[in-house]
Amino acid sequence: MKYRCPYCKTILGEQRVPRCPQCGKTMLFPDQKSPKKYEIPQREQIKVPDPNFFLRPAFVLPALALILIVGVMLVWQINLKLPSPEEANAENIARAQREIKTLRIALERFKIDCGRYPTTEEGLKALVLNPGIKEWKRNYINFLRSDPWRTPYYYEYTNDTVFLCSFGPDKIKGTADDIIAQTPTPEEVDWPPNSPATTNIEQISTNSESSRTAVSK
């Protein structure tokens, strides 16, 4: 069996030669397999998230339900911690009573040192700042604040009479909810003559309670 070049038709003889000596082209014989072509590896495709995924009902509805549940739980927790209006009013009244008593005791201690009560013009500020009295020795309270309803405590000194009150929740003088200071007992007023100024308005009440307990014993 003789072979012939498929390109230039040259007869090659019976022996197989990989390349035609006449045209120089490579030949492929019938029983030979074609060489494998080099396959370029394909890159792995990266899936891009669907930008409309968060707008789908399958996502939006559960998310809204979760937000609603969390909101209801937060509101419920806040309502548990907040006092009722009645409780809040009772706490404000109790605080005003304590502070009125504290101020009234401080006025008595002011009188012990200075020989008189502050005038109406000097007001309760005389318990914090010296109004120009030589006998003024100390801060009888370290600061002066308004009552729980953000109204200044009312002080008046006329005809040798001290009138100290809070106007109460309605903030109107002379109504039924006014909280009027009572004259303290000597045991509540008593304090060491060289004791330092109290650190805050609440400490006077604490000290007066301790003195009253010691006297009762």
Protein topology:
Elements: E1 3-4, E2 11-13, H1 57-81, H2 85-114, E3 154-158, E4 161-166, E5 179-180, H3 186-189, H4 201-216
Antiparallel strand pairs: 1-2, 3-4, 4-5
Helix pairs in contact: 2-4
Question: What can you see in these coordinates?
Answer:
- With 217 residues, this protein is mainly alpha-helical.
- The protein has a domain at 93-216: 2-Layer Sandwich (Glycoprotein, Type 4 Pilin).
- Helix content is 35%, strand content 8%.
- The protein is built from four helices and five strands.
- It has helices at 57-81, 85-114, 186-189, 201-216; strands at 3-4, 11-13, 154-158, 161-166, 179-180.
- It has a three-stranded antiparallel beta sheet with strand order 3-4-5, with helices on one face. It has a two-stranded antiparallel ribbon with strand order 1-2.
- A hairpin with a 2-residue loop joins strand 3 (154-158) and strand 4.
- Helix 2 (85-114) packs across helix 4.
- The chain is rod-shaped, with a radius of gyration of 50 Å.
- It starts with a strand and ends with a helix.
Quick rundown:
This protein is mostly helical and 217 residues long. It has helices at 57-81, 85-114, 186-189, 201-216, and strands at 3-4, 11-13, 154-158, 161-166, 179-180. It has a domain at 93-216: Glycoprotein, Type 4 Pilin (2-Layer Sandwich).
